[in-house]
Amino acid sequence: MRLVTMLNMGLMLLWLPACSSMQPxxxxxxxxLSAGEEVVQQDIEACKQLAETAGAKEGYGKSGDVAxxxxxxxxxxxxxxxxxxxxxGAAGTGSMVGAVSGAVWGLLRGLFYSRPSQPDQAYANFxxxxxxxxxxxxxxxx
Length: 142
Fold this sequence. Notes:
Number of helices: 6
Strand content: under 5%
Number of domains: 2
Radius of gyration: 22 Å
Helix content: over 70%
Shape: rod-shaped
Strand order of the largest sheet: 1-2
């Protein structure tokens, strides 16, 4: 039962970083200042939708990094746990324990030590051009 609870908690944590996405950083030029925060956010969302409609994808974001790190940790943990368990005669149990501990390690590593995610280049270029055509100046993404 403890194993199931740990895995459920890990899966819930996997989706937390997926909620945040990269945003364009806009220079406060005359158009930006006259538009107001609400209009600026609507324009950004409209450009993002237009990019996705055209086929550009935002990218996998940090959740993809976390998922791959968790899966890799589980695989390495299972293999090392099976090897250690084989020595003591309990390869199945060692593999299970190794997989869980490796998955937790991979999850934590992905959450706290992964590099900052960047949007897909085509997506960022599309949204930036759309915003530029509306009168904004995109200085970068974060």
